[in-house]
Design brief:
heterodimer, A: mainly beta, six-stranded mixed sheet, four-stranded antiparallel sheet, B: mainly beta, 11 strands
Chain lengths: 117, 115
Amino acid sequence: AQTVTQSQPEMSVQEAETVTLSCTYDTSESDYYLFWYKQPPSRQMILVIRQEAYKQQNATENRFSVNFQKAAKSFSLKISDSQLGDAAMYFCAYRSGPNSGNTPLVFGKGTRLSVIA
Amino acid sequence: ETGVTQTPRHLVMGMTNKKSLKCEQHLGHNAMYWYKQSAKKPLELMFVYSLEERVENNSVPSRFSPECPNSSHLFLHLHTLQPEDSALYLCASSHGQGSLTGELFFGEGSRLTVL
């Protein structure tokens, strides 16, 4: 079974600074997806960024980027130019590849990010 | 109109009550999911539904029973719950097998309190 580990329960960052959230995972599969979701106090889980395992290039979405190290099974999220609205719980998640059927997301325990003005 | 809608947003019930949570998706997906989110615990998958199959987590007590009448609607029927069942229940949907993006789309959750 796949597992996802987020070793940082809480992180804080100064506004406009950069922060990196860590995530490691364990799998024997070669084809899979990795995600970072954000859950603000409004509770709705919002997709931040997605990475397909077959892609060597790290995904980027505006101020958000990942460092995907497939051999090390590491998938960290970097938030640049942090904004107050980035404060939320961040969840790293794993999903088996498209040929594995309707597999669910496997989540880490989350990292609570605070942004200091 | 949001993609995945959950009702009610908040629910308080006694241990002898019977209630239901409802989820509706307008995204044309054919897979739907129930997750349970408790404080200081990882999100726990409860059920997966698709046109093809239902996948059930064996650790889900029978006091929770899902119903998926069609690909757009998902229910979670609740009866004789325990206080430890108090949690945020999240519904999600996705494209089914063969999806190229793999992501799940979530509703805003139903906050359940069992007295």
